[in-house]
C-alpha cells in the first residue's frame, strides 16, 4: 500500500445496520466459490474496512475449515457474531445465503417450466459438458493439495473403487476414512499431516477494530450456560419442523424425507460442496428420484453461476423435487417447489450456525492455532476419489445421453474438451467458461437442429 495507515488509527465500531448493509451486499456479490468468497471478505473486512486483523481473520478461517459445511458462509457468521453478538452472526450468515436462495427459486422455476424451449435447451446443451469439466477440475484441485504421499493416494483410489464399482454409500466412505486417519495418525503421523492450510498472518493493513491484541469481547468468552443455551435452541430449531412434518405429512412424505436427508448431508460436507455432491446425487437422484441425472448437472451449473455457497445447489434439488412430486397438489406446483427449496436450505445450513455460535467462544477464548486432524486429512483424500467418480458419472450421462447402447455425442465431447482446456491450461474463470459453453451449445443447436 502506498500510504500505510498509522497503527494507532483504528476504525470506529460500525453500527449494526451498517454491518447489515455490508452483509447484504456480500450476499449478492459472493461469486467464485469459497476461494473467491473468502478473497472478497478478506479484501473488504481486513484490507479496506479493517474490521478484523489478518491474524484474527485467519484464526477464524482455520476453525471454519475444520468444520463440515460451507467455510465461507461460516466465516461470515463468525465475524458477524464477533462484532455484533448472536444476531450479528445470524444476520451475516443468513444474508450470505438468502439472495442465492431467492435467485435459485426463480431460476429453477424458469428451468422447470421453460426448459424444453429451444433457447433454454440450447444453452443447457453447452452447459452440461462444461460442468463435467468443472467437476473434473475440482477433483484435480483438491487432489493436488491433499494427496501429498502414497498413503493418501491409496485412500483416494480405494474410495473411488468403493463408490464406482461397489456403490458404497458416501457416509460409509467418510466413516471408514476417518477411522483409518485416526489410527494412521497415531501409527504413522507423518503420513497424515495436513496437505494445506492458511498459515500465519504476515501482513498488516493498519490497526484493526478487532486487532491481534484486542481482548476477547465479553459475549465471546466461553460460558457453559451460553453453550447449553445454543445447543438447546439449535436442537429445537431442528426438532420442531421435523416433528411438524412427520405429524402432518408422515415420515415417508417427500418434505419429511428431504428434511432428514439434507440434515445428514449438512454433516458430511468435509472438503467443500463438491465433497457432498456425490451423496446428494446418490440420494436425490438414485434413491428418491427427486430429479434426473441431467437435471442434477443443470442444477450444478445454476449453482456455479449464482452468488452464495455452491452447496446452494440443494435449493435447486429441493425445488425440482417438490415440483415433480407435486407435494401440495397439481394446482400449487410453484409453491411446492419454493417451500421445498426453502426447507432443504434450512436443514442444510442450520448446523453451520450451531457450530459457529457454540464453538466460537471456545476458539476465541483459547486462541489456539487449529490444524487439520489426521481423520480430516484421510477424509479429504477419500473425497478426491469420490469427486472423480462424480465427474465420470456426469461425463457418461452427457456423452451417452441414451446410455452406451445409444450414440456418442461428439459435439458435447468437443465442448467438454474446450472447457477443460480453458480451465486447466488457461485458468479461466468458471462463470466465463460456463457462459462461453452455453453460447456454443446454443449456436450448435441453432445450426444443426
Q: Please state roughly what percent of the residues sit in beta strands, choosing from under 5%, 5-15%, 15-25%, 25-35%, 35-45% or over 45%.
A: under 5%
Number of strands: 0
User: Main β-sheet, in a few words?
Assistant: none
What low-confidence regions span 5 or more consecutive residues with pLDDT below 50?
Answer: 1-7, 195-201, 368-372
- Summarize the helix and strand pattern as letters: HHHHHHHHHHHHHHHH
Averaged pLDDT, please? 86
Number of domains: 1
Q: Tell me the span between the first and last alpha carbons.
A: 55 Å
Radius of gyration: 22 Å
What's the total helix number? 16
As a percent range, the share of helical residues equals over 70%
Which geometry do the CA atoms define? Answer: globular
Structural class based on helices, strands and sheet pairing: mainly alpha
Notable traits:
about 450 residues, mainly alpha, 16 helices, about 70% helix, about 0% strand, disordered N terminus
Structure description:
There is one protein chain. This protein has 449 residues and is mainly alpha-helical. The chain has helices at 16-29, 33-48, 54-66, 71-114, 118-146, 150-164, 170-187, 224-249, 254-266, 273-287, 293-304, 313-324, 333-366, 374-399, 410-424, 430-448. The protein has one domain (16-196, 221-448). The chain contains 16 helices and no strands. The longest helix has 44 residues, at 71-114. The model is unreliable at 1-7, 195-201 and 368-372 (pLDDT under 50).
Amino acid at each position: 500500500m502506498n500510504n500505510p495507515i498509522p497503527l494507532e488509527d483504528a476504525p470506529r465500531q460500525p453500527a449494526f445496520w451498517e454491518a447489515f448493509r455490508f452483509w447484504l451486499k456480500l450476499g449478492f456479490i459472493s461469486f467464485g466459490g469459497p476461494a473467491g468468497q473468502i478473497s472478497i471478505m478478506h479484501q473488504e473486512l481486513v484490507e479496506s474496512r479493517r474490521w478484523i486483523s489478518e491474524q484474527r481473520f485467519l484464526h477464524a478461517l482455520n476453525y471454519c475449515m475444520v468444520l463440515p459445511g460451507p467455510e465461507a458462509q461460516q466465516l461470515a457468521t463468525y465475524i458477524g457474531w464477533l462484532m455484533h453478538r448472536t444476531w450479528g452472526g445470524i444476520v451475516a450468515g443468513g444474508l450470505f445465503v438468502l439472495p442465492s436462495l431467492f435467485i435459485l427459486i426463480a431460476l429453477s422455476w424458469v428451468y422447470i417450466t421453460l426448459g424444453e424451449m429451444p433457447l433454454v435447451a440450447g444453452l443447457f446443451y453447452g452447459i452440461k459438458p462444461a460442468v463435467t469439466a468443472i467437476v473434473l477440475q475440482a477433483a484435480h484441485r483438491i487432489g493436488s493439495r491433499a494427496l501429498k504421499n502414497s498413503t493418501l493416494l491409496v485412500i483416494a483410489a480405494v474410495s473411488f473403487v468403493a463408490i464406482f464399482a461397489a456403490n458404497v454409500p458416501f457416509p460409509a466412505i467418510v466413516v471408514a476414512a476417518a477411522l483409518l486417519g485416526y489410527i494412521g495418525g497415531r501409527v504413522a503421523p507423518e503420513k497424515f499431516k495436513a496437505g494445506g492450510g492458511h498459515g500465519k498472518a504476515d501482513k498488516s493493513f493498519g490497526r484493526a477494530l478487532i486487532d491481534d491484541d484486542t481482548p476477547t469481547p465479553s459475549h465471546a468468552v466461553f460460558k457453559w450456560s451460553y453453550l447449553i443455551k445454543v445447543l438447546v435452541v439449535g436442537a429445537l430449531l431442528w426438532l420442531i419442523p421435523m416433528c411438524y412434518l412427520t405429524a402432518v405429512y408422515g415420515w415417508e412424505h417427500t418434505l419429511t424425507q428431504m428434511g432428514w436427508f439434507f440434515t445428514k448431508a449438512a454433516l458430511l460436507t468435509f472438503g467443500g460442496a463438491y465433497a457432498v455432491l456425490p451423496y446428494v446425487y446418490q440420494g436425490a437422484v438414485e434413491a428418491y428420484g427427486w430429479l434426473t441425472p441431467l437435471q442434477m448437472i443443470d442444477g450444478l451449473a445454476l449453482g456455479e453461476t449464482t452468488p452464495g455457497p455452491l452447496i446452494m445447489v440443494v435449493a435447486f434439488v429441493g425445488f425440482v423435487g417438490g415440483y415433480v412430486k407435486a407435494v401440495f397438489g397439481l394446482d400449487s406446483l410453484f409453491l411446492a417447489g419454493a417451500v421445498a427449496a426453502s426447507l432443504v436450505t434450512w436443514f442444510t445450513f442450520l448446523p453451520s450456525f450451531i457450530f459457529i455460535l457454540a464453538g466460537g467462544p471456545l476458539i476465541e477464548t483459547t486462541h489456539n492455532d487449529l490444524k487439520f486432524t489426521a481423520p480430516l486429512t484421510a477424509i479429504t483424500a477419500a473425497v478426491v476419489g469420490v469427486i472423480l467418480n462424480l465427474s465420470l458419472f456426469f461425463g457418461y450421462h452427457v456423452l451417452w445421453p441414451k446410455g452406451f447402447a445409444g450414440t456418442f455425442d461428439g459435439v458435447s465431447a468437443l465442448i467438454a474438451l474446450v472447457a477443460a482446456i480453458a480451465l486447466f491450461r488457461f485458468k479461466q474463470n468458471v462463470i466465463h467458461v460456463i457462459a462461453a459453453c452455453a453460447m456454443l451449445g446454443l449456436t450448435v443447436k441453432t445450426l444443426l437442429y
